């Protein structure tokens, strides 16, 4: 998080977390569900009952939709499941902070391809590209790690998190379908195969456009 440009305060218990949230005005709180005394959901519930306005991102290993519903219903602003890519976590933290301050949504770009982390929309030349959930997740990871070769294991981990993973060849199927949709939209040359290693998304047009806040954001991690 510090490498991502945040100033971070960290405590280990739910009671300490509540004290910090009530005493200081943070730009964001990242709360782990697994705390030794009070779980993260209870920290969130109590802080919202005390009218603490700090945006909250929940970290959890629970992938079930009901866990996410529970988090959002008691006041979470985002929910990230383990395992996660560090760059994805930083991008989502930036997105929550930007939304809370009324800034425009962050966008990942490669040439004429744009992906919104907030709305999960993908466009090429301004036209929407309709992707399945898995296709979107693959493209999001490729954009977050633009210029880096990603193995099929990395994609499987991102898509399934070690739970009920299918055979590795399913990644080739997803990539093939994603490429066809991007090609039809006019961006079919972005994803390259690196034989024996995996896939990479390259952009000759410039750097990845995830714009961080100009000033360091104050983040509390519990």
Automatic annotation (TrEMBL):
The modification 4-aspartylphosphate is found at residue 32. Residues 105-203 form the OmpR/PhoB-type domain. Keywords: DNA-binding, Phosphoprotein, Transcription, Transcription regulation, Two-component regulatory system. SMART domains: REC, Trans_reg_C. Residues 105-203 bind DNA. GO terms for molecular function: phosphorelay response regulator activity; transcription cis-regulatory region binding. InterPro entries: CheY-like_superfamily, OmpR/PhoB-type_DNA-bd, Sig_transdc_resp-reg_receiver, WalR-like, WH-like_DNA-bd_sf. GO terms for biological process: regulation of DNA-templated transcription. It holds the Pfam family Response_reg. Residues 1-97 form the Response regulatory domain. Transmembrane segments: none annotated. This is Cell cycle response regulator CtrA. The lineage of its organism: Bacteria, Pseudomonadati, Pseudomonadota, Alphaproteobacteria, Acetobacterales.
């Amino acid at each position: 998080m510090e490498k991502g440009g945040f100033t971070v305060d960290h405590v280990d218990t739910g009671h300490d977390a509540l004290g910090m949230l009530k005493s200081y005005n943070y730009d964001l709180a990242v709360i782990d569900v697994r705390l030794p005394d009070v779980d993260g959901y209870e920290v969130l519930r109590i802080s919202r009952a005390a009218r603490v306005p700090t945006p909250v991102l929940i970290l959890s290993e629970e992938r079930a939709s009901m866990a996410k519903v529970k988090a959002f219903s008691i006041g979470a602003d985002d929910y990230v499941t383990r395992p996660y890519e560090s760059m994805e976590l930083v991008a989502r933290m930036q997105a929550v902070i930007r939304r809370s301050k009324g800034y425009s949504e962050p966008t990942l770009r490669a040439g004429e391809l744009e992906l919104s982390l907030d709305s999960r929309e993908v466009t090429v030349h301004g036209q929407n590209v309709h992707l399945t959930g898995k296709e979107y997740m693959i493209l999001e990871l490729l954009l977050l790690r633009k210029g880096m070769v990603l193995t099929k294991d990395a994609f499987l981990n991102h898509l399934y998190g070690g739970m009920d993973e299918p055979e590795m060849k399913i990644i080739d199927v997803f990539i093939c379908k994603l490429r066809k949709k991007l090609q039809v939209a006019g961006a079919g040359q972005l994803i390259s195969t690196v034989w024996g290693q995996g896939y990479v998304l390259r952009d000759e047009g410039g750097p990845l456009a995830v714009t961080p806040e100009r000033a360091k954001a104050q983040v509390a991690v519990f």
